[in-house]
Amino acid sequence: MTSTTPGSLHIVCPHCDAVNRLPAARLIEQPTCGKCQKDLFTGQPVDLASARFLKHIERSDIPVLVDFWAPWCGPCRSMAPFYVQAAKTLEPAFRVVKVNTEASPDLGSRFNIRSIPTLALFRKGVEVARQPGAIDANAIIAWARDKARL
C-alpha cells in the first residue's frame, strides 16, 4: 500500500475505482474524483463485486462498512432501507458498501459469511468487527462508530 502524506487520505472512487489522495479536512467538502470528476461520497451504499470489493477495502484509508446480503433474504430486505439511512449519516467518515453473496459467492466464502445479513467493518483490508442479523439505522450507526474506534 502506498503511504499518504500527513493529514491526507486515500479514498477509492465508488464510480471508477480510482484511488484519490486528499487532505482529511476536505472529506466534508463534497470531494470529487480526480479521474471521473464524480462525487466520492453519494450518501448511498456502493454495490461491490469481487475485484472492486478488494480494492475498496485494501486501498481506502477510511473504515469500510460492508453489508453481506442476498436478494432472497427477508431480513436483508427489511434492513436495506435502514442501511441506506445509515450511509447518509456515516459518510464521509466511512465507505458504506453492499456485497450480494449470491452474485459474489467467492466473497461470502473468503470472509466466512455463515448468516445474512452480516455487517463487517474493515480497516486497511483487515476485518476488525462483525455483526450478524438485521438491525435498524441507529444501531448500525452506533455499532460502526463504536467498532471503528478499536
Automatic annotation (TrEMBL):
Cross-referenced Gene3D superfamilies: Glutaredoxin (3.40.30.10), Zn-finger domain of Sec23/24 (2.30.30.380)
InterPro entries: Thio2_N, Thioredoxin, Thioredoxin-like_sf, Thioredoxin_CS, Thioredoxin_domain
Keywords associated with the record: Disulfide bond, Electron transport, Metal-binding, Redox-active center, Transport
Keyword Disulfide bond appears in the UniProt entry: yes
Keyword Acetylation: no
Chain ranges of the Thioredoxin domain: 16-149
Family annotation (PROSITE patterns): THIOREDOXIN_1, THIOREDOXIN_2
Similarity comment: family membership: Belongs to the thioredoxin family.
Alphabetized Pfam families for the sequence: Thioredoxin (PF00085), Zn_ribbon_Thio2 (PF21352)
Protein name as annotated: Thioredoxin
Species for this entry: Janthinobacterium rivuli
Coiled-coil regions listed in the entry: none
